[in-house]
Write a structure and sequence with these properties.
This protein has a single domain, classed as Cytochrome P450 (Cytochrome p450), CATH 1.10.630. The protein starts with 8 loop residues before the first helix and ends with a strand. It is an alpha+beta fold. It binds protoporphyrin IX containing FE.
């Protein structure tokens, strides 16, 4: 009997094995297919660091105006991710100070307390399912602090986010596109309504939170319209929750499977910041970002045509040996770590200071309490494709 045809690297990219551990597929793409094609959509995948960075830095060729191609339940493009410079730059000038390192630092005590409380909640049992018990609620709590919202709304936000990102989980038939679309658009409506009300409340009685800053903010002397504020807030839910959840899961899963590296963090907690950066590079949980080609262009010998969708494969770029010495080694003390796990160019992550704060605080509080954790024998973590969330991460200690 003829053996089945071997799958190419781009075909294997979304297989469960590659989702859990994508480095071999990335390396094959970097070596043999620097521009490849997605299995069904035929969208181009760009893998090499230099090419990905070129695309990120040239929005006139690689546009972010992809809202019509990606259904996320929105009425309009999300700000600033789905619009291009120069309009996008005007919003970033306004938003960057609201997310500065200094401003995010003021959230640290609340974030640290949340991390400690979550861990204390299961510490004595000697085990946990990390995703559900820590990685999902922790960033959502930070989000509520940022917006000055009550902790009672935690489960509402988690539900809304899941209905947008993974509506299949709620659908009676996960292949019924009408049902999927209606779950998504209902959640979208609720997000607009919730933040619409909050805008009114904060306009009347501003406080010290992000929404109060947004309702007072002006561009060229004009206050932001309600729609602009809604389009900024909608993105916050989608950009700021799953990304941190996924990163925490990937980082703790790596450390649980690599006890020597884990030991280093107990011995040298001062290295946690560097470890977070190196694990962002190595795990790159936001594996790729989409773009649409605006004018015919050539990348690594392949012509891309105007109108084509493209995936910039950040994960592969981050282990490209053309950019990183010993790219296939995890080195917490890597001297020059110009990873692009937060993207690059105009759209570089607005929330990177908050993300880094959350990740460092979580790892500090975790390693201060939980001793020598591991994945219990017979258990296997499961990863989701796209954003590499470790959906099931059983851990045991003691
Ligand atoms: C470890 C966690 C995070 C990772 C890995 C991550 C990754 C990214 C990446 C790769 C982009 C670029 C998207 C593109 O080029 O199309 C991005 C953009 C963005 N991120 Fe993050 N992110 C994280 C956390 C956060 C948080 C906590 C927030 C909110 C507070 C946030 C808000 C945003 C926003 C608003 C953008 C769009 C920026 C723009 O288009 O100008 N992110 N993020």
């Amino acid at each position: 009997m003829a053996s089945p045809p071997t799958k190419s690297a781009s075909q294997r990219l979304f297989d469960p094995a590659a989702t859990a551990c994508p480095h071999a597929v990335y390396t094959e793409l970097l070596d043999t297919e620097p521009v490849s094609r997605m299995p069904i959509s035929e969208a181009a995948i760009i893998s090499r660091y230099e090419d990905v960075l070129f695309a990120l830095r040239n929005p006139e060729i690689f546009s972010s105006q992809v809202s019509e191609k990606l259904d996320l339940g929105t009425d309009r493009p999300m700000i600033p991710q789905q619009i291009d410079p120069p309009e996008q730059t005007r919003y970033r000038k306004l938003l960057d100070p609201f997310f500065s390192r200094r401003r995010m630092k003021t959230l640290e005590p609340a974030i640290r307390l949340n991390a400690a409380n979550l861990i204390e909640g299961f510490l004595d049992s000697g085990h946990c399912e990390f995703n559900k018990q820590f990685a999902i609620p922790f960033p959502a709590q930070a989000f509520l602090h940022l917006f000055g919202l009550p902790m009672d709304d935690l489960s509402l936000f988690l539900q809304l986010k899941d209905d947008i990102i993974r509506p299949q989980q709620k659908a009676t038939d996960p292949f019924n596109t009408d049902e999927i679309n209606s779950i998504r658009s209902r959640a979208g409506r609720k997000i607009y309504d919730y933040f619409g009300e909050l805008i009114q409340v904060r306009r009347k009685a501003p406080r010290e939170d992000l929404m109060s800053s947004l309702v007072r903010a002006r561009i060229d002397g004009n206050l932001l319209s309600e729609e602009e504020i809604l389009d900024i807030c909608y993105l916050q839910i989608l950009a700021g929750l799953d990304t941190v959840t996924a990163t925490l899961g990937c980082q703790i899963a790596y450390l649980a499977a690599n006890p020597e590296q884990q030991k280093r963090l107990y011995e040298r907690p001062d290295q946690i910041e560097e470890a977070v950066e190196e694990l962002l590079r190595w795990e790159t949980p936001v594996t790729g970002v989409p773009r649409i080609v605006m004018q015919d262009t050539e990348i690594a010998g392949t012509t891309l045509h105007a109108g084509e969708m493209v995936m910039l494969l950040l994960g592969a770029a981050n282990i490209d040996p053309r950019e990183f010495d010993r790219a296939d080694q995890v080195e917490f003390d890597r001297p020059r770590n110009r990873h692009i796990a937060f993207g690059g160019g105009h759209h570089r992550c607005l929330g990177s200071h908050l993300a880094r704060l959350e990740l460092c605080v979580a790892l500090e509080e975790w390693h201060a309490r939980v001793d020598s954790y591991r994945i219990p024998p017979g258990e296997t973590p499961t990863y989701s494709p796209g954003i590499r969330e470790v959906q099931y991460l059983p851990l045991a200690w003691g």
